[in-house]
Amino acid sequence: MSKANILIVEDESIIAMDIRLRLLRFGYTVCGIVTTGEEAITKCGEALPDLVLMDIKLKGAMDGIDAASEIHRRFNIPVVYLTSLSDDSTRKRAMTAEPLGYVKKPFDDKELQAAVEDLL
Q1: What is the pTM of this model?
Q2: Which of 39, 75, 101, 106 has the fewest Cβ atoms within 10 angstroms?
Q3: Is the pLDDT of residue 1 over 90?
């Protein structure tokens, strides 16, 4: 069984590199790390990842919710939010993009691995 190809969308470089290292340790392929919603959409069109791990709060004009909605609409690629934002209004808005999951930061290896494996 081949492991999934995953795109990381995270504007904090230290966090993005930590997620990348964890995913590689789990045996997954990381097709890229991008920092904005616009870059995420472009990269999805190029790499067609199996899954996108998306932070909600991103740099630039487009947040992770808007990017996830566009990725879902254009490519039907599943998105899992990895975020520290958990207030009710953000969660309700985030669910409109039809994500496959919502993992609250900080998370440990087991939480991340379970979220990815369960959703794939």
Answers
A1: 0.89
A2: 106
A3: no
Question: What is the C-alpha separation between 116 and 111, in angstroms, rounded?
Answer: 9
Burial environment of residue 44 by CB neighbours within 10 A (0 to 12, 13 to 18, 19 or more): buried
Contacts 24+ apart (CB under 8 A), 14-18: 15/55, 15/105
Residue with token string 């520290």? 84
Q: Which CATH class is domain 5-114?
A: alpha beta
The label of the residue with tokens 């254009």 reads 74
Q: Are 9 and 64 in contact (CB under 8 A)?
A: yes
Using the CB atoms, write b or e for 70-80: b if 16+ within 10 Å.
bbbeeeebbbb
For 120, residues 6+ apart whose C-beta sits below 8 A from its C-beta are 4, 50, 51
- Residue 56 tokens read as 């909600």
